[in-house]
């Protein structure tokens, strides 16, 4: 199973979520960069670059969810997640 192998390699759900958020930011940067660096190619090419990078985010979010699910059943959730859940129950 890929998720189990990723977990054994040290990849955690938090890493996948951070990669997803970085992908969203990188999408905007790629779009703006393409507009400025290639002014003659127009908006369509910039849109393609932004969409290309932006399509990574759902994959990383999905991996994050799968890893989180695995961590819950494996018992390896980080202390931060446990603390968050305890404050949610208390509050």
UniProtKB/TrEMBL annotation:
Membrane-spanning residues: 16-35
Keyword Membrane listed: yes
UniProt KW keywords: Membrane, Transmembrane, Transmembrane helix
Entry protein name: DUF2637 domain-containing protein
Organism from which the protein derives: Streptomyces coeruleofuscus
């Amino acid at each position: 199973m890929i998720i189990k192998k990723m977990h054994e390699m040290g990849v955690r759900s938090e890493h996948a979520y951070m990669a997803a958020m970085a992908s969203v930011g990188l999408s905007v940067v790629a779009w703006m960069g393409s507009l400025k660096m290639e002014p003659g190619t127009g908006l369509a090419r910039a849109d393609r670059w932004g969409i290309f990078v932006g399509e990574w985010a759902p994959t990383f979010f999905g991996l994050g969810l799968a890893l989180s699910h695995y961590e819950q059943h494996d018992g390896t959730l980080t202390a931060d997640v446990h603390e968050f859940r305890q404050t949610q129950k208390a509050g």
